User: What shape does this take?
Amino acid sequence: MKLPRTTLILISLALGLGGFVYFYEIQGKTRQEEIKEKQQQVFSFTEEDIQSLMIKTQNMTLSLERSSQTENPKWLIKSPISQPANDAIVSYLTDLLVKGKSDRILSTPANRLGEFGLDKPQATINITLKNQKSHQLLLGKRDFSRSSLYAQTDPANQQNVNVLLVSTDFENAVNRELSEWKQPIKSIEKLPPLTVPQPTPTR
Assistant: This one.
């Protein structure tokens, strides 16, 4: 049975509309989510890319460098002392730098950075990669809900800058005493158990 011409036209229009919806709605939405995911990531390097870190807080400037040795510790404190670092503490920070994401990005004039605590940041993290490229992360104050932290990456002299909202875990990761950054002292080896002499049997 031959379909009427009008029916064929309607079928063609329906197929065309279906294709339009698929490519522009479904595929477009997936693409938007990929772009959004990329925009939310604070940095795009990996943990293995990081060669050294310099953390400046109000109390201290700490310099860390990846050890050239394959054994533990993986990180070394270079200043203010020279000593093996606590790998767990350093890994907590590097994990945040690599996997950390921004909940929101605010565009603001550079002369308003003081409102976010970024004119005098509570911490500055300088990151040097193995390929000699460098990045910087400034940590400002908490937002009004105190659930996020204002931050800025790789600041440049621009009229408008992007202010990120990141996890307060960044604040916890850098505001530490020097003793916490040091490799913990190994526990004292257990002494051999005392041998209690057995009583001599009496006849």
